[in-house]
Structures are given as structure tokens and as C-alpha cells.
Design goal:
mainly alpha, 5 helices, 99 residues, elongated
Length: 99
């Protein structure tokens, strides 16, 4: 059960922070220049979640985490909200706390 919880937390952390992470690499420089704090935090959370998923799990679990993160990333429109990034950071902190 602990393995599923860990995979779920990492998938949520990666999925919820993905859109803010992608703002840095898409054609939206005006949105990033207006408020660079959330994309920066989302980048740290997204890359940290992927790094922990790759380091702490097997390759099959890593692929399942990525497969679960894609639908989570497509839910809603979190590019304007702070809440998805905060939830992603909370999921990552819960994962680190559980390890």
C-alpha cells in the first residue's frame, strides 16, 4: 500500500506542477515576466518529483507515475492559479516525509 501512495503522491506532484513548468518553455514570456515566482516553484517541484521518481522507484513504477501524471496535468486550467502549485508542493513534501 505504501508503494501505491508514494506513486500517487509523485504523480500528483508532477502533474499539478507541469503546466506552470511549461510556461517557461512556451511562447508566453509576458505571463512569466509578470510573475516569475510560480513557474520557478513549479519547475523545482516538477523536476524534484521526476528525480525522486526515477531514483526511488523501478523503471516500471516510473513509467506508471508518468502515465498517471499526464491526465492530472490535463485537468482544469491551472496556469492562472496558485493552488495547483501549492498542492503539488504539498504532495512532494508528503512524499519526502513518508520516505
Amino acid at each position: 500500500m505504501q508503494v501505491f501512495l508514494n506513486c500517487f503522491l509523485l504523480a500528483c506532484a508532477a502533474g499539478l506542477s507541469f503546466r506552470q513548468f511549461m510556461l517557461l518553455y512556451t511562447a508566453a514570456p509576458a505571463r512569466v515576466e509578470a510573475s516569475p515566482l510560480m513557474p520557478t516553484i513549479a519547475t523545482a517541484v516538477f523536476l524534484g518529483a521526476l528525480g525522486l521518481a526515477l531514483a526511488d522507484t523501478e523503471l516500471t513504477a516510473f513509467s506508471l507515475i508518468l502515465a498517471a501524471a499526464v491526465p492530472i496535468a490535463l485537468l482544469g486550467n491551472p496556469t492562472r492559479s496558485v493552488l495547483p502549485v501549492l498542492c503539488a508542493a504539498a504532495c512532494l513534501l508528503a512524499y519526502v516525509g513518508a520516505r
